[in-house]
Amino acid sequence: MSSSIDADDRDASRQRLIATGLLLLAVALFAATFFDPQPGFWTLLARRTAEAGVAGGVADWFAVTALFRRPLGLPIPHTGVIPNNKERIARGLARFVEKHFLEPATVAARLRQADLTGRLARWLVAPEHAALVGERATQAVSSLVASAPEEDLNGLVRRAALRGLSGVDLAGLFAIGLQAMYDAGRHQELFDGMIGRARDWISENPARLEQMIEDRTAWWVPKAVDRELGRLAVQQATALLGEMTPADSQARRAFDRLVLGLISDVRTSPRHQRQIEAIKRDMMASGQLAEALDRTAEELRRMLMEDVADRDSQVRRVITDGVQRFAERLAADEALRKRLERRLIWVVRGLVKPWRGSVGGFFADVMRGWETSTLADRLENAVGRDLQYVRINGTLVGGLAGGVLFLATWWTH
What we know:
Blueprint: H1 2-32, H2 41-68, H3 81-84, H4 86-101, H5 104-114, H6 116-124, H7 127-147, H8 150-166, H9 170-183, H10 187-204, H11 206-216, H12 223-244, H13 250-268, H14 270-284, H15 287-309, H16 314-332, H17 334-369, H18 372-412
């Protein structure tokens, strides 16, 4: 940017030097004609041409200079036009920008002509560009997660999880789980576990059964009878459990019916559903669940930071692949491009309308902040090349007009 400005300054200075040199050349030619003591036709033609060229060059030099400063520093009225009208120019520039650049309809028309969505699709479809977007997006996500306060991140995860849980049909989910367990035959593993645990307890606690029988018989029953009854109870309980163990036992079939009935009740019984919903509410209000979700949030943060630091980041790959697939779809689907373009124009128009005054005011404020000499120099450099051509043309055209008038006068005499 600065190199371009410097080049413009050098170009304007070169043209200014040419214009001044041409004016001085006309002055020198005009002065030289007076060295001829008996001027003839050609000397007089050169004198009148140079004289008119000097007049035209000086007039245009005065006009060009008067726009930006006082010629020769003299307090001539209506000179230094731009520095003396800086405030009015600033206001005019602000109105010009608002009216001609930031008019919502104009902005929308330019956006339609620019085919931004098509250009975006063609740019993003290149793998290196999609990878660049993926890299920048990953860095943004990493910075956002790293800078997020722990309490805020934990609260976000907790609220999202609880909101998700609140919408879960826990009764239906429980019924699906029971049905899957039943279809896979795993409910029988539960039955086997209960039988095995009961058998182990009986074998490990025979005295407990005897004591239970003794506690429940009359005082006058002999202890020996109580012990025999206890031994028989252990034997019968063990035998009963053995009868329940085979795959085709009545107890297993009864357990099958029990599980199927429970599945049906969970799916259809309002009472069971209310009970499960109450369990869900208690679980969501549990402090233990909140602590578990906080640990989950911390683990998610750790996993994400480790992943984005990896050269083969899964997050980066997912974002890059998603961007490229979207670009391919956008390039192939004109209707999608039109919808995206309309949405983009709607967003830009919504931003331009309330901010157009502020943007125009920004240009005006920047101009007001410049020194008057700075404003004049910058505007002069911006259009200096063309203004110096005005001076050059003034010298040349003035000289040509002077020569033509001299010839016309000469030939009429």
